[in-house]
Amino acid sequence: MIREIMKDPLFLSRKSMPATKADVPIGMDLLQTLIAHKEECVGMAANMIGELKNIIAINNEDMFMLMYNPMIVAKSGEYQTEEGCLSLPGIRKTTRYDRIKVSFQDAGFRTVTAEFTGFTAQIIQHEVDHCNGVLI
Fold first, then answer.
1. How far is CA 63 from CA 13, 43, 86, 132, in A?
2. Would you say residue 31 has pLDDT above 80?
3. Among all residues, which ones are annotated catalytic?
4. Predicted confidence band at 135 (pLDDT cuts at 50, 70, 90)?
5. Which of 76, 72, 35, 68 is nearest to 51 (CA)?
C-alpha cells in the first residue's frame, strides 16, 4: 500500500526500533511508496511513512532494494555534499563517504554484507541517518 509521507520533524527525529519478520508488510509498503515517488525520491526510511522501524528502501539505478536493520560497518572517502529530502523542505549540507560496507537483513531476513559506492552509498547513508533520527 502506498502511504502518505511523514513531514513532522519531531517524529522523524526519533530513533527507529529494530525490524523483525513481523515488519515485512511495513517493508512492502515502504517499497511501494518509494516506487510511487521514484520521479522525486531515490530512497526512503520507514519513519518517512510513519513507522519507527529500522527499514530502508533504495532505488539503485532502477533496481529497488529493501534493507532491514541496516548498519554501516565501514566507510571511506569522506566528502561534503548537499541533500534534499522528501520529508523535509530545503537542501542541507552534510558529510558522506564514497565507499561503505553495510550489514543488513534481506527480505528473507538472511544477514547480508555488501559494499556500495558513489551515489548509491550516499542514498544508503541518508536513509540510515533517518533510522537513527538524524535530520539532515
1. 28, 12, 20, 24
2. yes
3. 127
4. confident
5. 68
Distance CA 60, CA 4 (A): 22
- Note whether 58 and 130 are within 8 A (CB): no
| C-alpha cell at position 129 | 541517518
Question: Looking at residues 120-134, what average pLDDT do you find?
Answer: 97
Q: What is the mean pLDDT of residues 103-129?
A: 96
CA–CA distance, 46 with 63 (Å, rounded to integer): 19
Beta bridge partners of 105: 68, 111
Question: What distances in angstroms separate CA 6 from CA 3, 21, 43, 51, 105, one per listed residue?
Answer: 9, 23, 14, 9, 24
pLDDT surpasses 80 at 136: no
4 φ, ψ (degrees, to nearest 5): -70, 150
Distance of alpha carbon 9 from alpha carbon 27, whole angstroms = 21
